[in-house]
From TrEMBL:
It is found in: Cell membrane; Endomembrane system. It comes from Ligilactobacillus ceti DSM 22408. GO terms for cellular component: endomembrane system; plasma membrane; proton-transporting ATP synthase complex. One of its GO terms (molecular function) is proton-transporting ATP synthase activity, rotational mechanism. This is ATP synthase subunit b. Belongs to the ATPase B chain family. The gene is atpF. It is a single-pass membrane protein. InterPro entries: ATP_synth_B-like_membr_sf (IPR028987), ATP_synth_b/b'su_bac/chlpt (IPR002146), ATP_synth_F0_bsu_bac (IPR005864), ATP_synthase_B_chain (IPR050059).
């Protein structure tokens, strides 16, 4: 046996070492030839996918931020629009109130004016009636005076009948 290849337990066994080294190199060469390109391709695809996922996540984050800003702007616009609607409704209410009050005031003024005219007309009619009554009574008295000669007692009787006639005319009205 070769004493050079066999060393004692403390030394290196060069034959085994050389065998393992050659086997290792052959294994690496076989892996490089058959599997390395596919493993490197898989690793490249995986790195590319990870990079795409990161880019996609960034784009989605930016989109989400834009959507949040749009929603915030829409919410702010809706608050402004709601405030404007309420303001318009208040303004319309005030305008209607003013219109109704003006209409009611003009109607009240017209009613007062009509009532005043009606009262004035009634007053004029009453005065005309009194004038006519006085004129009739005056004519009646004058005709009675002409028909009979007045003395103190006749005069008294004539005034009493005149007063009595006035009372009867007022009762009939």
């Amino acid at each position: 046996m070769n004493s050079t290849f066999l060393l004692d337990a403390q030394g290196v066994q060069w034959g085994d070492f050389l065998f393992y080294l050659v086997t290792f190199l052959l294994l690496i060469a076989a892996i490089k030839h058959f599997a390395w390109d596919s493993i490197a391709g898989m690793m490249d695809k995986r790195a590319e996918k990870i990079a795409d996922d990161i880019d996609s996540a960034e784009r989605n984050r930016i989109k989400a931020a834009e959507l949040a800003e749009q929603r915030e702007a829409a919410l702010k616009d809706s608050h402004i629009e709601a405030s404007q609607i309420v303001d318009r409704a208040k303004k319309n209410g005030e305008e209607q109130k003013a219109t109704i009050l003006a209409s009611a005031n003009s109607e009240a003024t017209a009613l007062k004016e009509r009532a005043r005219k009606d009262i004035e007309q009634e007053r004029q009619d009453a005065l005309e009636g009194v004038k006519n009554d006085v004129a009739e009574l005056s004519i009646e008295i004058a005709s009675k005076v002409i028909q009979k000669e007045l003395n103190a007692s006749g005069h008294e009787t004539l005034v009493d009948s005149y007063i009595e006639g006035l009372g009867k005319h007022n009762e009939t009205r």
